[in-house]
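Hi support team,

I submitted a single chain yesterday and got back a structure, but I'm not sure I'm reading the token output correctly. Could someone confirm the output below corresponds to the sequence I sent? I've pasted both exactly as they appear in my results page.

Thanks,
R.
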Amino acid sequence: MTDTRPDQPVLGLALGGGAAKGWAHIGVLQELERMNLRPRVVCGTSIGALVGAVYASGQLEAFSDWVQSLTVRDVLGLMDFSFSGGVIKGEKLFEFFQERHQNPDIQDLDIDFAAVATDMRNGRETWLDRGPVLQAARASCALPGLFSPVQHEGHWMLDGGLVNPVPVSVCRAMGADVVLAVNLNHLPAGKHIARPNRRGMAEGKGAEQDESFWQKVMSFLGSDEDEDPGFFDVMTASVDIMQDRITRSRMAGDPAEEMLAPELSDFAIMDFHRAGEAIEEGRRLAGEVESRLQAWLGEAGDGDQGA
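Hi R., thanks for writing in. Yes, this is the structure output for that exact sequence:
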């Protein structure tokens, strides 16, 4: 557990859900490291739980290098399409993570960490703060319609964004005095349809074939501006609108001291190959609040904020 001396404000980081847009969390964390402001509490929902888990286990830089190397072919290669409980089972992706990254128990981490999931049986918000960190993140990432639910301690878990899209309240409960929240679903309802983006999709040998296949997949699941909404359009818009409304409601009663809202409106739900753009946006936004964070934390910004 981290040092929680009463004379130092505890910085907490609430990382929200948002599929491919979640790579922005990497940039936020990297910029905080540059500022020498290290959160002692990290709570994540969905993709925020995955990035938070990687950070809390000390593997952020290697993970950042890997996601920025992803091409369309890599992304497709990690997708185990199933259509049983979700379009993607997710087992292949997380097995890949576990083969290449450490998977310590949460209670052994130097940073206090929790992943938010939703109990499918009763709809309750569940905080996963014990056991292997990557399994907790996987349970939090079970986005309905996309990733299959995960069984955890006898309960089937769905994406935490159904109940707590940006887990500010969890950070508070775990002792954070100052909370920096990253909200990936902040656009007005009319802006929630993100069309497939063709930029930077593939390079090198086989690029044309990769792009052609990706376009076929997106044509089936998505749509162009002048067409009726496709499967991904409907699912993404529905989830984004729901999470946006829940986040607004919850933050009205318990707002974060600072909230970052990455401008990634053209990101489609599966644009995981565009990590570089999202990371840079996260860095930019975090840099803009540096002086305010220093003011909130006072002397905590002198480098002693970490464990």
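A quick pointer for reading it: DSSP finds eleven helices and ten strands in the chain. Let us know if anything else looks off.

Best,
Support desk
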